[in-house]
Write a structure and sequence with these properties.
The chain is of the alpha/beta class. The chain is 46% helix and 18% strand. The protein has 13 helices and ten strands. The strands form two sheets. The protein has a five-stranded mixed beta sheet with strand order 3-2-1-4-5, with helices on both faces. A five-stranded mixed beta sheet has the order 8-7-6-9-10, with helices on both faces. Helix 4 packs across helix 13. It starts with a strand and ends in a 20-residue tail after the last helix. Bound molecules: 5'-O-[(R)-(carboxyoxy)(hydroxy)phosphoryl]adenosine and zinc ion (ZN). Zinc ion binds next to helix 4.
Length: 386
């Protein structure tokens, strides 16, 4: 079964062709980084306009690279939410119109469910190439960690209605175990990078610089959560960084970097990570490294505590922040020492893409779900119950 997936929930316009929920024939992602860069964050109105401009060419490109036309797809899957409502609507309406014009079934997919399926999809591809690759199994605990979300789920499967075999036609079930009470982890990376003028988007910028600083230089301590120990909070950490910077030499240094970057923009030039590092003092690099370590510790420890509580053998980590090199290393090390398996998608499938939407949509269709004309987008669209 050939699915055309469409994703436009934030600032990436994406389309993909995926066969049987387990083989990527093409995956095209049009990034809007150059559009939002000078604002230091995603501007929703500009994002919607960019999606409008690019959705058609991106879908054409995905079909072209897979050697198919939209007519060859057996069904379409579109992201329904959560996300920026104007952005979501562009992809959703495009998908709905295309499905109606071609007379194809359509299914709405939760973006968070897509991130979870990115792990399963890629693991299946890896196992087909090498059967010795460990299987990413369900049930598991999944951390979805991105610019908009930091949330922990227990993921399991049940047989689809009318069937008994969960393996042949699984219906996925998600129970929310914890989530951030304020900023998402990626949002904290982006805000700290903006405060220190370290580049855009902030997560990859800090990741590259942190390797040159001392992660032990500043001890931010652990975040204490009243109520659920599996919830997260990153706004205190961000404020702690702000207090260290405000009125200090770090602030003047960040101002210099900001001025230099806006001059480069006028000349239509972009600084490389090395250029930025060349303008960072030891103290700035230490601050970036220590902040990153604090975020990573929160993510790793709470996720592994959830896996322990849920008595599952493995952990999935997905979403843009799953690209973070220290996060990957810490998870691999800690999970191994505590006896859990840990699975990440490749960086390209960790950040927003449409292959994960097509993969999640395939299982929904196989389990008998599909959308009708009332399908609409939801800015807030929780997955599972907490
Ligand atoms: O999943 P994604 O593409 O979009 C959302 O659904 O939000 O995630 C984007 C987020 C941004 O906040 C970005 O700074 C962060 O992921 N990110 C990273 C890294 N790469 C992307 N954060 C830390 N380290 C990275 N290497
Ligand atoms: Zn995402």
């Amino acid at each position: 079964m050939l699915l055309l997936g469409i994703e436009s929930s934030c600032d990436e316009t994406a389309a993909a062709i995926v066969a049987d929920g387990e083989r990527i024939l093409s995956s095209v992602v049009a990034s809007q980084v150059p559009v939002h860069e000078k604002y230091g964050g995603v501007v929703p109105e500009l994002a919607s306009r960019e999606h409008l401009r690019r959705i058609g060419p991106v879908v054409d490109e995905a079909c072209g690279r897979a050697g198919v036309t939209p007519r060859d797809a057996d069904a379409l899957a579109v992201t329904q939410g959560p996300g920026l409502i104007g952005s979501l609507l562009v992809g959703l309406v495009y998908g709905k119109a295309l499905a109606a014009a071609l007379g194809k079934p359509l299914v709405g997919v939760n973006h968070l469910e897509g991130h979870i399926h990115a792990v399963l999809l890629e693991n299946k591809m890896a196992r087909r190439a090498d059967p010795d690759v460990e299987e990413a199994s369900v049930p598991n605990v999944t951390l979805v960690v991105s610019g908009g979300h930091t949330v922990l789920y227990r993921v399991e499967t049940a047989p689809a209605a009318g069937t008994r075999d969960a393996a042949a036609a699984p219906r996925f079930r998600y129970a929310r175990l914890g989530q951030t009470r304020d900023d998402a982890a990626g949002e904290a990376f982006d805000k700290v990078a903006k405060l220190l003028a370290l580049g855009y988007p902030g997560g990859p910028a800090i990741d590259k610089l942190a390797g040159f600083g001392d992660p032990e230089a500043i001890d931010f301590g652990r975040v204490r959560m009243k109520g659920s120990a599996l919830d997260f909070s990153f706004s205190g950490l961000k404020t702690a960084v702000l207090y260290r910077v405000r009125g200090s030499a770090l602030e003047a240094e960040a101002e210099d970097r900001r001025r230099w970057q806006s001059e480069l923009r006028v000349q239509a030039r972009r600084p490389t990570a090395d250029d930025i590092r060349g303008r960072c003092s030891r103290d700035t690099l230490d601050l970036a490294a220590s902040f990153q370590r604090a975020v990573v510790t929160e993510l790793v420890e709470r996720t592994l505590a959830a896996a322990e509580n849920e008595k599952v053998p493995g952990v999935f980590v997905s979403g843009g922040v799953a690209c973070n090199s220290q996060l990957r290393q810490s998870f691999a090390r800690e999970a191994r020492s505590q006896g859990f398996s840990v699975f990440f998608p490749s960086p390209a499938l960790s950040t927003d893409n449409a292959a994960m939407i097509a993969a999640a949509g395939y299982f929904k269709l196989a389990a008998g779900e599909h959308a009708d004309r009332t399908l609409t987008a939801h800015a807030s669209f929780p997955l599972g119950v907490g």
